[in-house]
Amino acid sequence: MTASTPNRRIQSMTVSITFFVLVLFGISLSNSSAEPTKENLAPQEQLRLGERIYREGILSSGESMQAVIKGDISVPGTSFACVSCHLRSGIGSYEGGVVTPPINGSRLFQPLKMEYKRSETDQKYFPTVLVRPAFSDETLAKALRRGIDPTGKTLNPVMPRYILGDTDMALLISYLRTLSAQFSPGASDTTLNFATVITDDVPPEQYEAMLAPLEQYVQHKNSMINLFKKEKRSERMAAVMLNSAELMYKKMTLSRWMLKGAPETWRSQLEEYYRKQPVFALVGGISHGDWKPIHDFSEAHQLPCLFPQTDFPVISESDWYTLYLSKGYYQEGEGAARYLNNRDELSKGGKVLQLVRASHDSQALSQGFLETWRELGHDTPVTIPLNAGQPVSKEYLQQLLEKAKPAAILLWDDAGALSLLEQLATDVTHPVIAIVSGTQQKTNLAAIPEKARVFTYITFPFRLPQDEQRNSIYIEPYKKNPKTDDAVDPILKRSFIATQMLTAALMDLRGNYYRDGFFDVIGMMADQKYPLYERLSFGPGQRYASKGCYIVQLGSGAKPDLIKKSDWVIH
After folding, report:
1. For 214-286, where are the E strands, in sequence order?
2. Spatial distance between the Cα atoms of 184 and 188, rounded to a whole number of angstroms
3. How far apart (Å, rounded) are the C-alpha atoms in residues 525 and 194?
4. 306 Cβ contact list (under 8 Å, min separation 6)
5. Closest CA to 103 of 144, 145, 63
6. CA-based Rg of the chain, rounded to a whole angstrom?
7. Cβ 342 vs Cβ 567: under 8 Å
């Protein structure tokens, strides 16, 4: 025990005692001088401030909200904001055996009923037990401050008791009345509308491969509606499997949003598509360019985008509305940095040299490496930019190596990396390690010279080919050509994953069609095993499902195996 422990206990007890004296005896938590009056704020500003209290635990004054948990433990509201347990949509959560109920506007201010029984006449289920009456502003304030519900029942002690003044309490309650209070655009009593975005740099055979699983899924889902109406046995089985009887009869649509021309024009095209038909979410989609214009559109309209196929996602720790399969090329650079960080040659001060071609993929690889390398506490490596088409002679390469004396060289280059490896293997004294991108070299891996394979390491952000073969069965039904090429197979697999996650998310929504809830329920899912990726893992607010990257080396021969040199997730 440290000398400061008693002081912390005294501070915690003082805050707790003050809090309970105020609320227990009904003394008003009056507005401080820094706290604005709710009536003096415009409606939009009221909602903004209420949202900030809910999501960030920041009061209208800009100060951190304070709270008490488990009776006497003082905690900052920034660490125990409402969103931590009730999630962004307010639909609630389940973690560690603790059930957090929904507190969104459509639930909180309605009576809560449970225990369903079957009607003897129409065989439908109906609620029979009133758990609590609807909250009012007064009873909700009492629950938030003192942890007592409208029936007088004490709430779970893990729920914080918040120290909120009257204005901040009013702002929070006003926000809760609007939170997921009605279904999001694109969802109606009968239909769920979705769209998928395709840019014109993608060849037709590739975007048709992306569309095949999605469109077949929607067609099959809609075709089953008539079956359920005719066959009650199938209806009952589907109701059990889907966790939501109403989902069986929900029609789906999937629109193609085709974007043409320069990326700076995409936003206006998206706005026009959305104006004509708002959709509940974007699903899949494909582009060989930067996804940022579509990402920004999703953020602006609070429109979920599930698993777009792009090697260039937006890398952000705060944006919400796009859930990517991975960080793309950036993730490989990140994996290279973490692997080198664990190598003795580099942990003892060995230097790194990067050769970076002036291309989008090479720049993304370099960015992922640089940012991660610095976060791990290393100096910025020597980085040599290479113009498009610029050759690298063995003399120039030798000069770079003699000057930098690197323990590792990163060759972020496409076809040029092969000639560099050839030079390192024959004419130049090479570093201990050379690293290339498996995605960038996917068609060239077997061409890496045998002499270079002993020191060449490859970033590989997928399940290894020898372990992936059994997953080919998942995409067989969608193949128009049985002999699809290497560019189409991964597209089919990614699109198949999107259909599976869409199904799971809609089941878990249980008829509560709120856009924020769409990603909330995915964030609560366990790790998933699907084709292509070693695993997909989720968590509240996480926006990149595949988080790993193998470092591999090539075996010998014309059709070499990939040999693991690292775990999937490199720490």
Report:
1. 251-259, 281-283
2. 9
3. 22
4. 281, 282, 283, 284, 323, 498, 501, 502, 505, 518
5. 144
6. 28
7. no
Q: Provide CB contacts within 8 A for 358, sequence distance 6+.
A: 385, 386, 387, 388
- What's the rounded Cα separation, in Å, for the pair 394 and 400? 10
Residue type, 468: E
Nearest of 175, 141, 176, 153 to residue 22 by alpha carbon: 141
The string of pLDDT tens digits covering residues 243-274 is 666 788 899 999 999 999 999 999 999 999 99
Q: Quick one: pLDDT band at residue 349, thresholds 50, 70, 90?
A: confident
Q: For residues 455-469, give the mean pLDDT.
A: 93
Quick check: 82 pLDDT over 90? yes
Query: How many residues are given for the chain?
Result: 571
Tokens of 186: 């694109």
In this structure, are residues 183 and 514 in contact, taking their beta carbons and an 8 Å threshold?
yes
Could you give the strand order of the β-sheet that contains 251-259, starting from the edge strand earlier in sequence?
251-259, 191-199, 281-283, 305-306, 322-323
Question: In whole angstroms, what is the distance from residue 110 CA to residue 452 CA?
Answer: 69
Query: Which domains occur in the chain, in start order?
Result: 5-178 (no CATH), 191-327+467-540 (3.40.50.2300), 330-460+552-564 (3.40.50.2300)
Tokens of 462: 């997928």
- The single residue listed with the structure tokens 């059709």 is 559
Residue 394 tokens, joined: 């063995």
Closest of 383, 386, 393, 396 to residue 354, by C-alpha: 383
3-state SS, 151-179, equals: CCCECCCCCCEEECCHHHHHHHHHHHHHC
Which pLDDT does position 495 carry in this prediction? 96
Q: In what order do the strands lie in the sheet with 161-163?
A: 73-76, 66-69, 161-163
Tokens of 484: 């699809």
CB 257 within 8 A of CB 267: no
CA distances from 340 to 332, 344, 410, 546 (A): 12, 8, 11, 21
Any idea what DSSP says for residue 376? T
